[in-house]
Every structure is written in structure tokens, then in C-alpha cells.
């Protein structure tokens, strides 16, 4: 429900308030007798503060609330869920025998190091990510006696278990950008928006926070209807913000809610002098 448009919110609120709805093409309302269950991973209170969600609708929906904790907070569910998803794929492949009793001296179908990785992984994509990993593991290991990780999946599941070595004063390794740990498809619009705001619309820092590639975050921004691009800003809006913020680029990025780097380009194109130019 957190992704519902303003029009849908109005219609839903009207049905909840009056208990009636108009079928398509009808001239008379029809009484309803329903119990509604709504779900979202968005921060609706924050959306209300931003004017993107109607508070009366939230109050109507929140008759009784249930919070479903993320998978990383209920690791006891990882094993049974993985087994459920793996069994579905094994049945489809005709290899369900991997889950039945077998020679106790044979290698286990689920290697212990892989099981540890699955249990310790933070699962930022929650159950959807676990289901996809189970599918890829089973399909990628079909015809084999045990599950094996391919290079790409191993990269996704890697863990920094060992503490980093302390560099010596004479040999400090050069800094490099941290590799992406998540798929961009795992990042929702609300999570993207929160990360951008937390890092003052510095795209590079937001991408690092979200653990996705910087190139991916630009694609997410372009596909998000609630996020504007610096190129969408009018000259009047840019000039007004420039003077209101006294040329402070950080303050302008927060005020206009656009990429700081792209905003700097627009400012220079207009011949305005920012404090970071």
C-alpha cells in the first residue's frame, strides 16, 4: 500500500469510510463487507510528513499492526525456508532423492561451509533473495552429489569474517571502491530515497551505503518516479535555490533533492558560482 498513488489512496479511503464502492460503469453504489489486510515495507509516517501518503488512510488501515522482522533478525527461519525452496526445485528437476536418507559415509548434499554462509549472510533481499539463491544453487548443481557455489553466487554470499590486517606505516594500500554486494533490484524506492537523503544526495556515498554499484544507483534514480533529476530543474528553480542557499552546493542538493554532482554541472552551465566550484 505504500506504493499506492494519490488517486488510489483517495478511492480506498472512501470505500473504508463509507463501506460502499461504485463498480465500473455503475450508477449506484454497492455495499461492501470486507476485512482488509495491507502490507508495506515503506516508512508511511515519513511519507505522510513528505505529503506522499494520507494520514487518514493510515489511521483507517492501522486497526491492528503486525511487524514482520527481516530475515537477518530471525535466522532460525533460514534453514527451513531454504529447504522448502530447494525441495521445490529438486522436485521439478526429478532429484528429490538428495533430501532422503542415504549412505552416512557419503559427502553431505549441503556442505557445512555453505550452510554457515547461508546462516551468517545478512540477506538484504530477505526471503526473495533466499529463494533465488536456493533456486540458483539447486539448478547450478544439478546432476551432482552436493551443492556447489559458482563464482558469481560466491561473490554474492561472501562474508568479511576475518578482521582486516592493520597496514604498516611504510606500506599503506591504495583505497579502492568497495565491490557491490547487492543487486540493484533488491533496493526499493523508499530505501534508495532514505540513503540519498542520509548522505546529502551524494550518489557515490549512497551507493556505498546500499552496497550496490554506483552505475546501478543512477539507473535506480532514473526509474524512480518520486526522485527528480538535476536536468529536470528549471532555470528559475535553480537560480532561486542558488540565492536562497547562498551558493552552498550541499544545501542546494538537500533542498532540491537531486544528485549533488549533477547539480554542480547545472550550476556551472548557468554560469553561477557555487562555494565548491
From TrEMBL:
Sequence ranges assigned to domain Sigma-54 factor interaction in this UniProt record: 1-139
Keywords: ATP-binding, Nucleotide-binding, Transcription, Transcription regulation
GO molecular function, one term: ATP binding
Domain of life: Bacteria
InterPro entries: AAA_lid_NorR, Homeodomain-like_sf, P-loop_NTPase, Sigma_54_int, Sigma_54_int_dom_CS
GO biological process, one term: regulation of DNA-templated transcription
The protein's name in its UniProt record: Mutant NtrC-like activator
Organism name: Myxococcus xanthus
Lineage: Bacteria, Pseudomonadati, Myxococcota, Myxococcia, Myxococcales
